[in-house]
Amino acid sequence: MNKNLKLIGDGLVKNNPTFVLLLGMCPTLATTTSAINGMSMGLATLFVLVLSNMAISAISPLVPDKVHIPVYIVVIATFVTLLQFLMQAFTPAMYETLGLFIPLIVVNCIVLGRAEAFANKNGVIASACDGLGVGLGFTLALTVLGLVREILGSGSAFGFNFIGGHDGMLAFVMAPGAFLCLGYLLVLFNKIFKK
Amino acid sequence: MEYFLIIISAIFVNNIVLAQFLGICPFLGVSNKLSTATGMSLAVCFVITLATLVTYLLNMYLLVPLKIEFLQTIAFILVIAALVQMVEIVLKKVSPALYQALGIFLPLITTNCAVLGVAITVVTKEFAFVPGGTLNLAQALVYAVATALGYGLAMIIFAGIREHLALSDVPKAFKGVPIALISVGILALAFMGFSGIV
Q: Terminus of chain A with fewer CB atoms < 10 Å: N or C?
């Protein structure tokens, strides 16, 4: 049990997919226009990550080595399609907002990366915990980045406006702000955690 | 006229890297040197055009008539993976020089979200300046080529900047990816000047 808890903790800080491994940059930059959007994208990826990790760890002994990548991609794409259906049914507004980046979870290198680096040589439970940890780390990073951009760009946090009569610096909600904020957050992360 | 608008919009206004955030991983990964950046851009251009052609036809003549559009994601990624493999085999046989030049970049393109992104965009997105809203085959191909050119443009500009960055004295915590991201941010700010043209 302790081992599984450690796996979750590792994904959150030591192997944080965004701040340490620098994986999955496209959704990180594109969907973090607000804290809520960033968190939703993180949770959507978490969903696919946990399920695909579990499925891949279960089927990996049966898959011949030569075709393992295409098989993994089909497994991941299946869960992404499932997610698309669920989001269309229960959160249609968020599905519209995140748009193209929901189907693009298929090519998010975090998901295939965890399948390749962890799930195909570990048990189902451990793989689920690993997926949960990395997914939570990704969600955390996206929420933080979304929060910073939302505060700077629209003067609100999680949708609550706290600067009355002020629009904020719009550039931070648009494309340049994404690159700048992530750049400076990485600097901060390097300063604190990598001496 | 709409072809011109598609081209300007795809290269400058909605640049695939600087405005749409697609294909960032290879953008940051291989933009250290101008020569590798050019090679990658060429490979992406080639695959995006080919993949868009095939997935557009697949969608139009197989998925839509059978009413299985929900399989788009799975079908498209399989087509792209197979296509990249095939291009690799053909190039190796037909033009070993080009194959050598593209090297490792070819297999990496399968997981480049720019390719899947463009393939999905041309069959789902509504374009305001195109009559009818959705792209026909010729327009889709023009859009694909222009987008790929935009990718190449951003990549080559950024590789040029990065070659200079490598020589400058940057604070330790900024070294590597952080300063690269901040530079892209400034470049994206410059590209924002194009918005409003189309």
A: C
Please list, in sequence order, all residues whose beta carbon lies within 8 angstroms of the beta carbon of residue A1, skipping any fewer than 6 positions away. Answer: none
Question: Which residues form the domain of A18?
Answer: 3-193
Cβ–Cβ < 8 Å for B74, A77 = yes
Please list, in sequence order, all residues whose beta carbon lies within 8 angstroms of the beta carbon of residue B176, skipping any fewer than 6 positions away: none
Quick one: how far is CA B144 from the chain centroid?
A: 8
Provide the pLDDT for residue A195: 57
Q: B126 at the A interface (CB within 8 A)?
A: no
CB A30, CB A178: distance < 8 Å = yes
**HEC secondary structure over chain B:** CHHHHHHHHHHHHCCCCCCCCCCHHHHHHCCCCHHHHHHHHHHHHHHHHHHHHHHHHHHHHHHCCCCCHHHHHHHHHHHHHHHHHHHHHHHHHHCHHHHHHHCCHHHHHHHCHHHHHHHHHHHHCCCCCCCCCCCCHHHHHHHHHHHHHHHHHHHHHHHHHHHHHCCCCCCHHHCCHHHHHHHHHHHHHHHHHHCCCC
Contacts of A143 (CB under 8 A, 6+ apart): A35, A38, A39, A42
Residue B176 has pLDDT above 80, yes or no: yes
Contact residues, chain B, for A149 at CB < 8 Å: none
pLDDT given at position B182: 93
Residues 6+ apart with CB under 8 A from A101: A26, A27, A30, A31, A41
Total tally of structural domains belonging to chain A: 1
Q: Among A13-17, A35-39, A129-133, A185-189, which stretch is predicted with the lowest mean pLDDT?
A: A13-17
Q: What is the DSSP string of A126-185?
A: HHHHHHHHHHHHHHHHHHHHHHHHHHHHHSEETTEE-STT----GGGTSHHHHHHHHHHH
Contact indicator for A81, B73 with CB cutoff of 8 Å: yes
A48-78 pLDDT, tens digit per residue, is: 999 999 999 999 889 888 888 888 989 999 9
Residues of chain B in contact with residue A29, where contact means CB-CB under 8 angstroms, are 21, 24
